[in-house]
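seq/struct pair 1
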Amino acid sequence: MMTNNSELEPIAADIKAEILKRIRAAEQEHGVKVLYAVESGSRAWGFASPNSDYDVRFIYAHTKEWYLTLDVEEKRDVIEYPIVDEIDINGWDVRKALKLFRKSNPAFIEWLQSPIVYVDDGVFSAKAKQLMPQIMSPNSGIYHYLHMAQGNYREYLKRETVPLKKYFYVLRPLLAIMWLEKYATPAPIEFETLRQLIAENTALNDAIADLLEQKKVSLEKQVIPTVPVINQFIESELNRLADYRAKEKQMKANYRELNALFKSTISS
């Protein structure tokens, strides 16, 4: 029987304060403005372990003058920091983000849908979300999630004992593919929402519910015996998708709309 564990664990106030402190420090260090910052990993997906990292991702903008140079293409367009106290914080320059957005980059599209938002300037993400229906390509998403599922299955799940968390690194992308195939809209980031797609498969959902309960109390490197019903589902889906071919043309926004969004972020 399917259970509803859709509520995410709230981010503790002291952790959120530390994340915001580091974001402001990054702004000062690099002379940028953070437009949007979210949680992007297992805590946003809904299956965090007690010691899961906080995977913070942000979009930032330099001053207008920074972009008005001949060597702008050669300038560094990411901000990266080492993981400290389980906080993994990295960001993309807005120009890089929008160029990838135009290609329907699945990571950026997931960030736009994160249920855990640390910073929102009230402009960038709202306008990007308005453009998402005409930019998002189901085909790009399916290829991305299929590659993710195949790699994690091949590397970690073809053994007698397997890393517990890797089941979710295969199940979530496979369910995201099912969503894209069924609705042709961006796949929700929350695992429980995706899980509704297989609600009628009681045996599979009971096994997944058990795994979710285990993961909530297990450390990141916990290993468990293979779960046959889950492996059967994974193998069946991977076999079905093995010869996947795109059925639609790549969708892209024209540069006029993305340029307008870019200009609005560096003019404020």
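seq/struct pair 2
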Amino acid sequence: MKTGYIYDESYFWHDNGSGTLYLPSGGYLEPDVFVEHPLTKRRVNNLMERCGIMRELEQIRPRSATREEIELFHTSEYVDKVKHLSDTTGGDAGDHAIVGRGSYEIALLSTGGALTAVDSVMKGRVDNVYALTRPPGHHAEADRGIGFCIFNNVAIAAKYARKKYGLERIMIIDWDVHHGNGTEKAFYNDPNVLFVSVHQDLNFPNNSGYAKDVGENVGKGFNVNIPLPPGSGDAAYVSVFKEVIRPLADEFKPELILISAGQDPSMFDPLGRMLVSAKGFGKMTKVMMEIAEKHCGGKLVMCHEGGYSNSYVPFCTLRIIEELSGIETDVEDPFATGSNGYPDLVYSNQQEAIDHVIDIQSEYWETFQVKV
């Protein structure tokens, strides 16, 4: 497999300001490092350089998205707001979506990274791509930013792929620990895009990501939410990919797969309560590669979303890229002992959550209907 890797130094210059975890400092909250911090992503690059895998990847420079491309999803009024904040004092573009000075241009480049990734796989330059996009995008809705996300990179990339390449079936998998609400809204009435969000139940945003939310009108059944209980680890996640996502893909037969790759379901993330290991992310990636090989010639694009453990995100991301590229480095997970004592099994409450999703989706997908 030939794997592309996309990033730009500018991604690390998007400034969220100071805060304490994700809140602004003040009162009893001392200034600290805002949780969506460039260090997490910069250290991904550092680790890949240090172990040598970076030299084995096809490094691809991103272009900036045009305003017309951003407006494939976002309203012109919202784009104006982001640009104004970026050009003047900075500020919040919605709900915890901080725009710093110059963030507008960086956000255009982040979305452009996703578009460049799509072009790279569709034109056969590479088989698959990992794009270290920042700022992230999956929470951003048409008219506002949410949860560190300014422009919805993956949603725009899917709309771009349909428009430019005439694709009829695109599958989007969002494994970020938080529900991909913005991407859900982008395709809630669209039968040409199958959106699957695997997330921690009732984490963020509020009142979002319920299994019962399946889409509307002709889009019914093409929105699949898989809310897992806190404490779900490798076994539960891999079961989701094998029991739900693979059968869905086999029936849907995607022509392109996009993944919102948030490494915040990891066992050390400050904004999640899941227990996925670096090895677990590799296993999830392997299933998705098998699906991509079977249905769309391996055309797989991953865009970085969340992941807030400066120490662990690099190792989780490296495992993903090793799986994508087929290149095994000599890097061992130094935090693997942190999962010692976690039984590698699917607990009953986790299986119940998975079965509940299958039961709901059985109304729309033959693969889940009981054969008598």
